[in-house]
Specification:
About 80% of the residues lie in helices and about 0% in strands. The chain has about 190 residues and is an all-alpha fold. The chain is built from eight helices and no strands. It has one domain. The longest helix is centred in the last third of the chain and has 31 residues.
Length: about 190
Amino acid sequence: MTKEVIGYTAAIVGVIYYIPYVHDVLKGGTKPHAFSWFLWSVLGWIAFAAQIIKGGGPGSWATGAATTCASIVFFFSLVKGEKMFPFFDWISLIGAILALILWRITRDPTLAVVLITTADAIAYFPTFRKTFWKPFEEHLTFYALGALTYGLALLALETYSLATWLFPTEILIMDSLFVGMGLIRRRQLRNTKP
């Protein structure tokens, strides 16, 4: 398979896997955390730009496609998402914004990817926390398909450099960890119910 075919496949999967997630959000089954989705949208656009600048080629297409969809989910999260934002969530938001400020000061695409990847990982914390306590309010298949999308994106990269592979690798790892944690918590809660 050529990198273009893998890139198109990753981008298509990157859009398709959002459809059931958005549908579930609109039905009220999934309650996305606005802080996470806001940060994932902003950070995704920065990562996409950095990947393009550094020659990511077809491997960057999934980031662009998924970030477009993440931006849509963010807007839905304002209406249909989690409404409680404990102190921990605010700390995560501030930490991610600080990484964005550092990126803005440096303007180096490689350093930008390192900083936004760090911020993106921090952006998972509110969703991890919420899902730990309410594991049935997230669509775990969505995150599993996200891991698949970014695995394909890594295979489709034209140029492998820190600026092109770090962000998709972080999402692949975080989505996989998230799915594992969500499945374990669901099993634990099912086993504790009378």
